[in-house]
């Protein structure tokens, strides 16, 4: 059973000021989760979480995480600018990009970010654009199929990211020749796993690589970034990962591999998005239509513009009908939005209580890759974002889009002036 952090009474009060649909985030839970992660890796003095901005690019939420000691993982100019605006600076930004447009390395370097090179061919580009900093990270791809004891997890060999081991060694040598003094290793191999074994297994791979790189090149490796990949239980029957166990198991591998190699000063970084924010955001919508043809449909006032994951991936997001939490799930619905696309469905053949027009529905686990993945197909406008603060008050942290926002880049067209 998934329990919303907002109730029917709370939503009925909120909508007096902020109409549905809206994303709402739970400040208290976000802070508690960040502290739990920090506790899990407290054995490592240099540990730092670099929140993946792409998961939820809202400056209010970034500020909240900053207060909890987190940094930011950025992958574009816009994300770098947001991190800068919030006040992240030297050592608080990881810049992990690929096919990097000109100018972004310069911005990252100016902000004192750790620059994570996705490919060995980026070394001369970095040198030419802005010069090579004293600390540089490189991204590793081991290739092949990545497996844990409980089965295949993903296929890094089919991913566009990262360098081979041989390229890592050659890249380190080139960078040392350009004056680099400290190095990082980064790798992202699996997405959204709730297997507690993933991070420790990845740590073994990267710690072993670090020892080999040091032996081969003499490079000083100052940090290893385990990146993201730790997932969340989208379905009620899934188990949440045990982050304290994960941290402890990574520690054991650290002491087994790095410490005997004289590398006990290596800092551990993480780069989590979904784990940090996913369960602590919810999309609140209102039932506005019903349809009875070959199936039973409930139409809501949101669509894939507000939450793209079900339409794009067929992803499951649990749904609670507020005020009917204890009612029997004796109706089967497709819960749909208003896009002119048949995949605009938040749920298919979902067993739910009987839904009446005007009921409020909570779509769970939208705190990561929810609002962030939105778009404007069909001219649909993105919703507001709200923050449920620790004192119980609600703050708007992004207003809903307007028609004027949608047409803003058409200010060159005289015909559109009446809407601008």
Give a verbal description of the structure.
With 420 residues, the protein is an alpha/beta fold. It folds into 2 domains: 8-22 and 281-410, Beta Barrel (Lyase, Ornithine Decarboxylase, Chain A, domain 1), CATH 2.40.37.10; 27-278, Alanine racemase (TIM Barrel), CATH 3.20.20.10. It has 12 helices and 19 strands. The strands form 3 sheets. Strands 1, 12, 13, 14, 15, 16, 17, 18 and 19 form a 9-stranded mixed β-sheet that branches. The longest helix has 20 residues, at 198-217. It is globular, with a radius of gyration of 23 Å. The termini are far apart. The model has no long low-confidence stretch (mean pLDDT 95).
Please provide the count of β strands: 19
Assigned CATH class of the largest domain: Alpha Beta
Estimate the strand proportion: 15-25%
Query: Might you state the CATH topology name of the largest domain?
Result: TIM Barrel
* Portion in helices: 25-40%
Categorize the overall geometry. globular
Characterize the largest beta sheet: strand count, sense, and whether it forms a barrel: 9 strands, mixed
CA-CA gap between termini: 46 Å
Tell me the number of structural domains: 2
Low-confidence stretches: none
Radius of gyration: 23 Å
CATH superfamily of the largest domain: Alanine racemase
SS summary, helix count:
12
Q: SS-based structural class?
A: alpha/beta
How would you state the average pLDDT, rounded? 95
């Amino acid at each position: 059973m998934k329990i919303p952090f907002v109730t029917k009474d709370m939503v009925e009060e909120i909508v007096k000021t902020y109409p549905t649909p809206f994303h709402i985030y739970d400040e208290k839970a976000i802070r508690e989760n960040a502290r739990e992660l920090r506790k899990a890796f407290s054995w490592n003095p240099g540990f730092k979480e670099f929140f993946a901005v792409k998961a939820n690019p809202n400056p209010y939420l970034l500020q909240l995480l900053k207060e909890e000691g987190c940094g930011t993982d950025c992958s574009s100019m816009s994300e770098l600018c947001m991190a800068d605006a919030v006040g992240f600076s030297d050592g608080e930004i990881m810049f992990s990009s690929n096919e990097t447009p000109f100018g972004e390395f310069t911005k990252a370097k100016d902000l004192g970010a750790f620059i994570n090179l996705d490919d060995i061919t980026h070394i001369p580009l970095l040198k030419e654009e802005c010069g090579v900093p004293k600390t540089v990270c490189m991204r590793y791809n081991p290739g092949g199929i990545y497996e844990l004891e409980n089965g295949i997890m993903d296929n890094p060999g089919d991913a566009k990211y990262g360098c081979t081991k041989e390229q890592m060694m050659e890249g380190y040598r080139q960078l040392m020749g350009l004056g680099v003094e400290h190095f990082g290793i980064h790798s992202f191999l699996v997405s959204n796993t709730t297997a507690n074994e993933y991070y420790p297994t990845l740590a073994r791979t990267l710690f072993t690589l670090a020892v080999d790189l040091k032996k081969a090149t003499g490079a000083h490796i100052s940090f290893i970034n385990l990146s993201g990949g730790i997932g969340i239980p989208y379905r009620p029957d899934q188990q949440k990962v045990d982050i304290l166990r994960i941290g402890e198991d990574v520690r054991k591998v650290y002491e087994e591999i790095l410490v005997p190699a004289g590398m006990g000063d290596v800092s551990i970084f993480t780069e989590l998005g979904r784990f940090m924010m996913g369960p602590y955001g919810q999309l609140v919508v209102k039932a506005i239509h019903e349809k009875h043809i070959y199936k039973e449909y409930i139409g809501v006032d949101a669509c894939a513009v507000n939450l793209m994951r079900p339409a794009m991936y067929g992803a499951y997001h649990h749904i609670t009908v507020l005020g009917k939490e204890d009612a029997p799930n004796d109706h089967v619905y497709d819960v749909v939005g208003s896009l002119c696309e048949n995949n605009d469905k938040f749920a298919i053949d979902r067993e739910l209580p009987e839904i009446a027009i005007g009921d409020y529905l909570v779509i769970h686990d939208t705190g990561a890759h929810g609002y962030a993945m939105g778009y404007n197909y069909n001219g649909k406008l993105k919703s507001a974002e709200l923050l449920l603060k620790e004192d119980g008050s609600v703050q708007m942290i992004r207003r809903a889009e307007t028609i004027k926002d949608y047409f803003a880049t058409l200010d060159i067209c005289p015909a559109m002036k009446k809407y601008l």
